[in-house]
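Hey all, sorry for the wall of text incoming. These are the two entities for the joint prediction.
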Amino acid sequence: MTIVFVLIPLGVVLTGLAVWAFFWAVRTEQFDDLDSPGWSVLEDDKRASDD
Amino acid sequence: MSDAAPRPCFHCGLPVTGADAPTVEINKRQETVCCHGCAAAALLIESAGLADYYLRRTSPAPRPGTPATDSWSAYDRPEAQAALIHNDGRSTTNLLVEGLRCAACAWLLERRLLQLPGVTDATVNVMTGRGRVEFADVKLSTIFRTIADLGYRAHLLGRADSLAVALRERHAALKRLAVAGLGMMQVMMIAVALYAGASTGMSPVIRQYLCVASLVIATPVALYGGAPFFAGASSALRARHLTMDVPVSIGILLAFVLSAVATLRDSGAVYFDSVVMVIFLLLLGRYFEMLARHRAGSTVEALARVVPAVARRVVGTRTEDVPVAALAVGDVVEVEAGAVMPVDAALESPLATVDESLITGESRPVTKRAGDTVLAGALNVQWPALIRVTATGAATVLAGIVQLAERAQAERPRASRLADRIAPAFIGFVLICAAATCLVWMWIDPAKAWGATIAVLVVSCPCALSLATPVATTATAAALRRRGILVTRTDAFEALAAVDCALFDKTGTLTEGRPRIVSSDRLGATSIEECYRIAGALERHAAHPIARAFAASATPPVENASAVPGAGVEGWIEGRRYRIGRASYVEEIAGPSPAPAADAGVCLGGDGRWLARFCWEDTLRPSAARALAALTSSGLSLEVLSGDHPRAVASVAEAAGIKQWRAALSPKEKMDRLQELQRRGARVMVVGDGINDAPSFGAADVSIAMGSGSAIARASADVIILGGDLGEIPLAIEEARRTRTVIRQNLLWALIYNAASIPLAAFGMVPPWIAAAGMSLSSLLVIGNASRLLRARKRDDTGASLPALRRAELRA
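and here's what came out:
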């Protein structure tokens, strides 16, 4: 069971990293519009109806 | 005239009426649209190579307005330029865009704006309704005109904008959610190990280690994530007022501090899992409520959207564009046709037709004569008008109505929430129990007093109690949002469930707020189809709203068209003179009328002959009658309150099947009627769309706005029906009643759980791990019960949505 002495601190550190990454994403306004960017991948495609 | 199976307009989705509606070719298919405005918007989109919009959208497009005289040039004036941000040769402007329905709208606007030469960047956010355009060498008016041509309405925002405040609030909430959510996952994982260890045996060292790890993770969650609750509780206590924040804060702090003490002293139970779960779920509920509130917007901002920012002042023989704020009483202002009155004023021109429907609820445009009062926010329908300013800014009738709405909202009898009523009694009960336990054990066995008292306090932690209401309302709000019903205030559900009286506005709520030809009489030898063609052609030269009712036909060219204010339009078609308008105006060339003139009729005649008479009406929304019948059958008494003429109100009330109605009411009188009903004990719901409904919205137990209504109505409403379908109201009430049932079940369960566990804890009979597990399980039960609400019931009459059908059709 000694492995938990490594794994749990590792988990805590990873959680901290995840929180930091999320804060960075919020700060750089990546959550401000969740709808429009999804369409941007389609922008230069030919229209989808001609199949 | 028969309305044979109305098809939805390809562009805006409204039903197409009229024999020969215009068609446009989109994606190599002929599509039917309802009017020339929609046809123009659709062709514009197609010609710009953006027809993919129709495949991508998930809601129909906004209906473009009547092309009015170009009033955008005011935006090129220095006053408007002051709102721009300049940065090395480029300008950036922040816009507020109305009419955004889905992500495809944003996509369309961005593409179209980027096609303009000179625009370097354009972003549109559907969620906030804000746009940012970066440009050089292009006029601001061009940008606004482009947006308007697509059917959206743009407003210039200043440099300082409430968006920044809303964004900060949103960012803070997201960060708290992330900390609480990630922390919750970690703590829960460790909690599983602790529970497993407690039942199967675990070495004390490992147990202690796991507790310390939980403490480390739970500390930021409790202190950072829980901060809004502590702030709420402390301000509530300072105001000597108990809200749900108080027991929530007590519960969180108590469970957290006791668990921390137990961890550090290496004795007793830990409840970190309950602490973090409660914090996360409550934060989640508040986050969704905040999103809905932001979408609804603020009343102050809405007011700014109603009146224009720039006015054209007449000084001597020349005119100058000035900010509306710079106008003073006595100034003379020129208002173009199709523009909105910026101030309250007296009419200087001999005649003007204004549409005051948003302010007074009157459905028909009113003819004003020199010296009559015109109100800020009214639409100048037909002719350019000169007005002399009598009141500006906060002194206008419009601002007065908004102030009335805000005051009514502040003084609204708060529907006391069930949980709020229970909370103080519950806290008192727990504290008495804890004190009694402590005293009794001190007398029996002082060594056990501390442990038993803590057990009572922890077991009674109001987790399930504080989750009971928010999880249920959050689940229902999420389910309703998927149907296009936006709930901006979550305690609206309890009010909605208790409603027993519904007051409806007429124009724009029960009716569509647009005139439509309902019948036509042939008065001469000419066929009715030909009459429609001629009428449509003539009416294209009138800016009157009634003219739009004719716009849905292919028309021959008109020569020498001239319009006479308050009378009608004259023009030559294929070498013959025709007149359309009031009976008396047509009589001048056509001779005595063969049929008795009706007030609502529009007559058409040529030289020496009568052709036809058209009767128009602001028609009932298609879903109205069925929705109202559903409301009556679920026990509500219905009433129509309108600012319109009694005759118009009576006919709509009759068509809608409502027996009670009152007409010609001012916004204040509407509110008085509402409060009279409330004094008699009724729980009143108000459904409306205009500025004149805003005061009653504030005073009502619950208010519902139509998504197509005025921004002020939307900003002050509790519930917004985005699609404007009245059929959603019975559904919302039904869902609210289901929610109330679930809340009651949850509260009952929480009370039973606490009532059973407190005596056991007081007698020292609850092992710590069972207390902790019991707490988590009771919370989970509450959540599971509420999750049933996520599945909103389907209405039996709706098939697939229009956009889905449209996409399927296009792919086929």
